[in-house]
Amino acid sequence: MSLERELYKRANNKCELCGNDEHIQIHTLAPHKDQNINKSLIACKLCVGQIESPETTDANHWRCLNDSMWSEHQAVQVVAWRMLSRLRHEGWPQDLLDMMYMEEDVLEFAKATGEGEADPEKLIHRDVNGVVLQAGDSVVLIKDLKVKGSSMVAKQGTAVRNIRLDRDNEKYIEGKVGPTLTVIITDYVKKL
User: Tens digits of per-residue pLDDT, 130-178?
Assistant: First the structure.
């Protein structure tokens, strides 16, 4: 039986990641170029596009990994691990990663592309509860704060929308409190 037929039979003519049965194709996992049963899988055009272009990744699409991460097939496990690692800042993927078990050699293969390695230069901004903050998030103040340089007091419960992250200090974010753009310490905010 040809590799292509074997893969399509294994996948039951569906994407092995999300279950889509349209626009499916063979996807060989980086860094390998040669197709074989353990280094290739059947995936839809949407999954392949997001795997190959991290900037187009839609976190909600990958909630399908909740099921496919339990696959008995190596290639599916590797892609699930890589995508969950890429999305770990979302919160829920980290929970799935913590549950995932892989053989040592499979995990080594999954790490071969550098996915999941922490960037030592990257600052991680966290709210008072430890939730990771991203640029554009909305937060709420958890205590009254005096705005320096003015007589204004930002009241507890005030929502600050579309925050920006300070590139030099993980404890600082910027956002508009009323009409004023101000720097806020992350220890006094909670992500909405």
Answer: 888 888 899 999 999 988 878 888 899 999 999 998 888 889 999 998 8
pLDDT in tens, 8-56: 999 999 999 999 999 999 999 988 778 888 899 999 999 999 999 888 8
What is the structure's pLDDT at 18? 96
Beta bridge partners of 68: none
CA 126, 108, 86: angle at the middle one, nearest 5?
A: 30
pLDDT of 120 over the 70 cut: no
Long-range contacts, stretch 28-37, CB < 8 angstroms, 24+ apart: 29/75, 29/78, 29/79, 29/109, 30/112, 30/113, 31/112, 31/113, 35/3, 36/3, 37/3, 37/6, 37/7, 37/10, 37/75
| DSSP per-residue string spanning 33-89 | -S--TTTEEEEEHHHHHHHH-GGG--GGGGGGHHHHTT-SSHHHHHHHHHHHHHTGG
Contact assessment for residue 175 and residue 161, using Cβ atoms and an 8 Å cutoff: yes
